Amino acid sequence: QTLVTYSVTVQPGETVGIVSDEGGMPLVQEVYKEVVRAGGHGVVLLGGGKPLSGGVLNADGDMADFLLRHG
After folding, report:
1. DSSP of 4-71, one letter per residue?
2. pLDDT tens digits for 5-64?
3. Would you say the C-alpha torsion 41, 47, 49, 55 has a positive or negative sign?
4. I need a surface site. Which of 7, 30, 34, 36 has the fewest CB within 10 A?
């Protein structure tokens, strides 16, 4: 809850990318639930993490949006 409402301050209608590997699923589920409660749209991206998360985290706004929409 702190992550979603304080650290990131998810606003209604925002799309939020949640990037993790399978080992992080309990946290992913809780973060996703809090994003929805805040009115956001959670997009979960699972994988090995390094190439995908590195791409999303280091991309400019347009590219991050593309990666979140198209994986």
Report:
1. IIIIS---TT-EEEEEE-GGGHHHHHHHHHHHHHTT-EEEEEESSSHHHHHHHHHS-HHHHHHHHHH-
2. 767 888 899 988 888 888 889 999 999 999 999 999 998 888 754 555 556 666 677 777
3. negative
4. 7
Report d(CA 69, CA 56) in Å as an integer: 11
Q: What is the pLDDT of residue 66?
A: 72
Comparing CA positions, the residue from 51, 46, 52, 50 lying closest to residue 32 is: 46
Give the pLDDT confidence score for residue 39 in this predicted structure: 93
